[in-house]
Structure formats: C-alpha cells, structure tokens
Amino acid sequence: MTEKCLFCRIVAGEIPAEIVYQDKELIAFKDINPQAPKHLIIIPKKHIASLAELTEDQQGLMGRLIILATKLAQKEGVAENGYRLTVNCGVEGGQVVPHLHFHLIGGRRLSGRLG
Ligand code: 5GP
Ligand code: ZN
What we know:
The chain is of the alpha+beta class. Helix content is 20%, strand content 22%. Zinc ion (ZN) binds next to α1.
C-alpha cells in the first residue's frame, strides 16, 4: 500500500468503488468515467507503479490477471462480440493513475485508433 495512491486506497476500502471481483492478489472495479458501456479497471492489489516496474517474478501474477480479464469479459457479456484490454504506461502512454491497471472496455464497436 502506497498511502497516497488512489488505487491502493480503493484496495484498502478508503475510497468507494463498484467492485466486481476480488481475491487475495487482484481486484476489478468499474471505471468512474467509463469510455464505453462496459469499462472495468483490473489491478494487482500490490502497488506496482506501471508496466515498466514489472519484474520477472510477477509473470504468474500478470498471467492470472489476463485470464481474469477474459473471465470478466464473459461475465460482463462482451466476450462474444469482442472487447479491448489495454494498459497505458507512463506519461506519453497516457497513464494518469500511477498504479498498474488494465482497462477492459467493451459493449460497443470501438474505434480502431489507439493513439
Ligand atoms: P489511466 O489514464 O491512468 O490509464 O486510467 C486511469 C483510469 O482511472 C481512468 O479511466 C479514470 O476514469 C479512472 N479513475 C480515476 N479515478 C478513479 C476513481 O476514483 N475511481 C474509479 N473507479 N476510477 C477512477
Ligand atoms: Zn497503488
């Protein structure tokens, strides 16, 4: 837990969020400003600032997060028609919250533009 980190504070229950899933190491909640009908944020509970901070020993954690994303896509009803799973990394990558997070976005035909 990093005290001033917004997503660490959601993990700690200090800031409310619409949590759709959690286990010992992962949590998923609805984005406060959804970009599509379905927009979840999926994060490791442990504070990792960005993709750039990942270490070799976190391969399993990242694999489990991606598998969880596919399950949540099914649960949210977007798996059949398709969805996007993205990570913004760093300032030029568009990352605003400095706690590694995956966006699961779907529920409408998304633009092909990524940048
Ligand atoms: P980034 O731009 O860092 O990749 O994405 C940060 C995401 O976090 C944005 O989509 C933004 O809407 C979302 N967000 C920011 N503050 C909050 C919050 O307090 N609660 C929730 N649920 N989402 C947030
Ligand atoms: Zn954090």
